[in-house]
Amino acid sequence: MKHAALFRKIVLASAAAAACSFLFYQITAAAASKPRALSSYDPQVKQVLAQMTLDEKIGQMTQPDQSALRDPGDVENLFLGSLLSGGDSDPKEGNSLEAWTNMYDHYQERTKKTRLQIPLLYGVDAVHGHNNLLGAVIFPHDIALGCTRNPKLVEQVEKVTAAEMRASGVQWAFGPCVTVPQDIRWGRTYEGFSEDPSIVASLGEAAVKGFQGASLSDPLAVVASAKHYAGDGGTTFGTARGGRGLDQGDTRVDEATLRKIHLPGYVTAVKAGVGTIMPSYSSWNGVKCSASKRLLTEILKQELGFEGFLISDYNAIDQINPKDYKESIAVSINAGMDMAMVTNRYPQFIANLKALVNEGQVPMSRIDDAVTRILRVKFAMGLMDKGRSPLADRSIQKTFGSPEHRAVARQAVRESLVLLKNDRKTLPLSKNAVRIHVAGKSADNIGNQCGGWTIRWQGQTGAVTTGGTTILAAIKNAVSKDTQVTYSADGSGAAGATVGVVVIGERPYAEGNGDRAELSLAKEDLDAVAAMKAAGIPLVTILISGRPMVLGDTLDKSDALLAAWLPGTEGQGVADVLFGDYKPTGKLSFSWPRANGQLPINMHTAKYDPLFKVGYGLKY
Ligand code: BGC
Ligand code: BGC
């Protein structure tokens, strides 16, 4: 058999396997029932709490970044309750499943040296798959999942993510992000499912169910963290730190508006039994969320009945009063914060909190409440079960990055693409076209396709990022053996082709680095589109981006236009839609602006006249 034919046979076989395993995940996901209340573990928690010293309690409330540990012995010496790996915090051994698992086990082993032997919770930002790990399946970012409107699918996505996490031992995801971005100039827009609170409420709930499974004690489940509470997506442009942009800024709305737009995702996450919630860096009417007793204790714990624990954002407590760390700690813990992501200032955090308790500025009852909440989660997860090892179960590793897992991601890609234009039935393309010319900086670029929070905190452009199928490779896999696929990044060489496909958009970014004053396409993209157009062939434009972009005349120049968001490693899902193996079903979860002058525009703006409304999406 010729090489190409053999490859196609493999692709077809894996597509069939994909369909089967997709069904498997659908069936197993459907069995979820109402989870056990976390407070039902209080009898066991009380027994442990009664034995704990103040040092042991404060240790439980402390979460350093593992890469910031001054000495690994601090795990046992300071009775740490948790560690995290931030976006760039790989194991010292390197980045591989093996190295991550060894690292996790190493730290977990250290807790056995403590008197009470309470295992660690290990947290990571699994925001689109176990995305710090080389070889993990990278799912589309939440903005794309929002366009699927498919809670069952989102549940499966997080179920697979949880299984890939547990393969490395890690049992805590800082997700789902149930933000409701109201201004797409914000660099974290793609972390949100939608600008529409009802979509966020339904998909956020599904995500919690997927991560946490039917029970937190399931060895394949992880504890979720709904974030960033509350109103992170509602900040006013120009209120970000340094006075520019939106990230970590101030949300200036009354309480009724906050409840209507920004809280629904927390209501459903709490209903689904979410174990942890992360307060936001941002402020609400000038008060840092991490300092707000109203938000943390009165609304979340007392009114919504949240029984899990609050984890502060990365060094967020420091920002409460940048001149007085001790006061910042007092304010935050008294407001209701239960665990602090400190991350390298952990010795100061511990010393200050201890002094605050001894001085009576933080009541012991508050410490006990925080530790009770943390231990509830540890009991619920079976971590306190003496008969159960907290070390990684390496038998799960065979499913890490597996074809079954990739099939779920490929389905998520298919369902997330939104067809914005399709004149003269340009799409679907024929697999028998004589020549397809592919162009654009993101056509053969796995890094751009994955976006931020992929292997590195900020993501990275190009093939160095991780393995996966680029859109160019996917097109080559899909076409018949007689079809020629040619490629140029700049769009040259298109003349004479049957059809052109240009893949343009944003390069990776995360958080405030993605804040933009305007959302025009880059010059290199406009040039690639112009070069393709000049060839006089039908033109399909695929936009890879973390949010809607101002299209300008690219819309007119394109015969068909697909919003592909940040699809992740399974680019074959894009080709499935291009060639009609899957007919588009995606619907916009954000409003699409006509021009920069319209920003911010969303379904809640008074003069709502977008280019495409929430819910827009063409079919074949
Ligand atoms: C982000 C969070 C993230 C945390 C840990 C922060 O900068 O705001 O979303 O969970 O870092 O990496
Ligand atoms: C970490 C991220 C974190 C960010 C906060 C980075 O160094 O890798 O996880 O969100 O700092 O600013």
Describe this structure as you would to a colleague.
- Helix content is 36%, strand content 10%.
- It has two domains: 2-396, TIM Barrel (Alpha-Beta Barrel), CATH 3.20.20; 404-598, Glycoside hydrolase family 3 C-terminal domain (Rossmann fold, 3-Layer(aba) Sandwich), CATH 3.40.50.1700.
- Mean pLDDT is 95; it is low at 1-32.
- It has helices at residues 3-30, 42-51, 54-60, 74-77, 97-110, 142-148, 151-167, 197-212, 255-262, 264-271, 293-303, 325-335, 346-358, 364-380, 403-416, 446-450, 471-478, 523-534, 554-557, 572-578, and strands spanning 62-63, 82-85, 121-124, 172-173, 225-229, 250-251, 276-279, 283-284, 287-288, 309-310, 340-341, 418-422, 435-439, 484-488, 499-505, 539-544, 560-563.
- It has a six-stranded mixed sheet with strand order 12-17-16-15-13-14, with helices on both faces. It has a three-stranded parallel sheet with strand order 2-3-4, with no helix packed on it.
- The protein has 20 helices and 17 strands.
- Helix 12 packs across helix 13 and helix 17 packs across helix 20.
- It is α/β, with parallel strands linked by helices and 620 residues long.
- The longest helix is centred in the N-terminal third of the chain and has 28 residues, at 3-30.
- Strand 16, helix 19 (554-557) and strand 17 (560-563) form a beta-alpha-beta unit.
- The structure holds beta-D-glucopyranose (BGC) (2 copies).
